[in-house]
Amino acid sequence: MTLITETTLIENLKSPSTKERAFTLLLDKYQKRLYWHIRKIVLVHEDADDVLQNTFIKVYKGLKNFKAESNIHTWMYRIAYNEAITFLRKKQKRLQLNSEEMNTQILTDLKADAYFNSDDIEWQLQQAILKLPEKQRSVFQMKYYDDLKFKEISEILDTSEGALKASYHYATKKIQAYLTQ
Amino acid sequence: MTSKNKHRGFEVPKGYFENNKNSILDAIYKEKPSEESNFNIPEDYFKTSKKEILDQIEKQKKQAPVISLFKNRIITGIAASVLFLLAITFYLQLTQDTPQIVENTPLTDPLLNQKENIHHSIPLSKKDKMLAIFVDDIASDELINDFLFEEEIASTLEEDF
After folding, report:
1. Is the pTM of this model over 0.80?
2. Interface pTM (ipTM) of the complex?
3. Are residues A19 and B23, on separate chains, in Cβ contact within 8 Å?
C-alpha cells in the first residue's frame, strides 16, 4: 500500500460515512497477515482465532485515536503482538505455570491441534523457538515469518534497531545450534 | 522463503478467512455504539447508565410497597349490600309462596306427609326461618330422615317393652 492510498484509507476510516467500507477493506488486506503473525506466537489455531478477533475489535475502537505517526499496518501489528502476548500471559496465570512449564504446555497444545501437521522439521523449529527468551523469540518470528523490517519491528516492540539486530543474531545462532545438535 | 514454506505444518480450516471476516465484522458491529448513524453517546455511558439503573432498582426495593385498602372496601361493601338485598328478596318470596305450594301439592307419600307434619308441628322462630333460607335442601332432608328413623326406633322399642 503506498503512502497516498494509506492516507486516504485512514481518512476514510475516520469519517463516519465511509468508516464501515474502509474497515472492510482494511480487514481484507490485513486479516491473513495478522492471523499468521498471531498464530506463530500462540501456535494453536483456536487461540489465534480469538486473538485475531480481539485485535480487530481493538483496531476498530482505536481508529479515532490513531495518529498517522506510524504506518497503519505497523500500528496493527503492534496491537496484534500485544494481544497475543497478553493472551499467553493470562493463560499462564490461569494454569498457574512457570515459564518452562508454559512452554511445555504450548507444545502439548500444538501437538493436539487439529490444524497442525507434526512435520518433524517444523516441530523441532518450534521447540527451538520456544527455548528463546521472549524478546529474541519475537524478533526472530517477526523477521523470519513476517518479513518485517528492523525499523518496523522496532516500532512494534518499542526497542532500538541496534538491540533488535543483536537479538536476532543471537536467536539465529541458538536455533542453528539446537537444530544441529 | 515462499509463503507456503513459511507456514509449513500450520493449517487453517477450509474457508476460514472468508468466514472469519464476517464474524469479525459481526463482532465489531454488534457491540459498537450508534456513532455511525451520527448519534453519539457520552464516553463510558453504558457503564455509568448500568450502575444508575441498578442503583434505582435497589432504591425501589428498599421502599415498602403501599397497598390501597380503600378500593377493596368499596367493592366488599357493594357486594355485601347486593347479597343482603338478594337474601331479603328471596326470604320474602319464600314466606309468601311456600304455604300455597304445600297446599296445592297432593301428598300421597306417607313419609312426605310425615315430613310435612314435622315442618308444621315444630314452631319456628323468625330467626330460625331466616336461617332456613341458607340451609341446603338435601342437608335438611337428611336431618329429617335421621330424626324420623330415630323416632321409629324409639316407638319400636316402646312397643317391644
Report:
1. no
2. 0.73
3. no
